[in-house]
Each structure stands twice: as C-alpha cells, then as structure tokens.
Amino acid sequence: xxxxxxxxxxxxxxxxxxxxxxxxxxxxxxxxxxxxxxxxxxxxxxxxxxxxxxxxxxxxxxxxxxxxxxxxxxxxxxxxxxxxxxxxxxxxxxxxxxxxxxxxxxxxxxxxxxxxxxxxxxxxxxxxxxxxxxxxxxxxxxxxxxxxx
Length: 149
Known about the structure:
Blueprint: H1 8-59, H2 66-148
C-alpha cells in the first residue's frame, strides 16, 4: 500500500468550505429574488393606485383628494426607493458570494489535482515495484534452470 496523501485533510476542509459557500450563495440568491419580487409588487401597486386616481379624476374631478394622493404617492415612492436600495445591496452580496464560491471551487480543484498526481505517482511506484519483483522472480527461475543444466 502506498503513502497516504498528506494534504487530504486540507482537501476535505476545502471541499467543506466550498459546500458552505454554495449554501450561502443559494441563500443570498433566494433573498435577492424575494427582494426583487417585493420591489415589483410595490411598483405594480404604484401603477395601479395611479391608474385608480386618474380614473377617479376623470369620473369626478371635484371629488379627487389631491393631498391624500400626493402624500400616499410620496410614501410609496420612498418605499420603492428603499426597496431598490435593498435589491442593489442584495445583488452586490450575491456577486460577492459568487466570487467567494468560485475561489473555494478553484481551491478544491487545485488540491484535487495534487491528490490525483499523488495517486498517479503511487500507482507508478506500485507498478515499478511489482515489475522489479517479477523481474527478480524470473531472474531467479532462470538462474536455477541454468544451474541445473
């Protein structure tokens, strides 16, 4: 049996870190999607409210409550601005998470390559050792036959 790969614990740790970063990236992506949906909902609600106000204004221009409309629209616009900021922050976090995950995967790949090289070297050594033993056995058999003759 060959020598164990000395960096195996580091490879295992790198694989665990890569799995954790993948899970964090998944959570960040899900969070960003939820924030995007909320932003879309706010924007859709703003358009619907604006359309209802326009309809009310067309049907009964004297009854339109401009003050309430403007106050509510300002609050809605503020909420949309805040949500857009949250979405942008989430996008930046997802980008950072992707970068971290790619770094972790590269590290695993590098250690995996070292492990493969180690395994290949061990197999070559085992084949050479087996070939030497076979050559020695063949040589001994040949010597015994030559000694009898």
